[in-house]
Amino acid sequence: FDAGNLDLEIGGTWGETLVAKGTVSCFAPYVLSTNGPIRVGIGYGNWGTLDLRGNNQRAKGLYSAYNANTGTIQQIVTSTLPATLELIHTDSRDYYGFLNGAISILMNGAGGTFTIKKESCPTTGSLIASTGRMIVDAAAQFPALTSLVVTNTGKITLNTGTINPGVLHLVQAQSGILELASGVTLTICDA
Questions:
Q1: 76-124: pLDDT as tens digits
Q2: Which of 26, 54, 112, 184 has the largest count of CB atoms under 10 Å?
């Protein structure tokens, strides 16, 4: 999708979902295709917004291309109401955009890696790893995160010093791992 607004009310089976310049809004649960990843931003247009509008979605990954020559990058995945974007990819994906509103990210792709690269992600949602690995890059900041959840065989690696989850859930029923890089301090706030 290249410009303007696109409102999705019925799901489809297309491949990659490209949000280059406009806004794609999900008006129902699971309207995005699970046959391909979501790409927010492209070389000529790094201003795409995916708005879940409180509706959970599932896709084969989320990624964006970083291009230092394009100026201000406004790649956004957001939801005013709580919603979860479940990532089911089994390869590596890097996301340079913002995570805003009440969006939660669930990594549920065995063998896959999802790396969050953006400096500021003001979401009040959660980061959840059930299977696969989620990496929060050294430059990323999550000042208002509600929770970190690691379960099953999931792994979250924190390479940042600025992440303040209200609640930390480590469900060790299997082999979930929370890994802190050297020098990283995790601050747990009272609810």
A1: 899 999 999 999 999 999 998 889 999 999 999 999 999 998 777 888 9
A2: 26
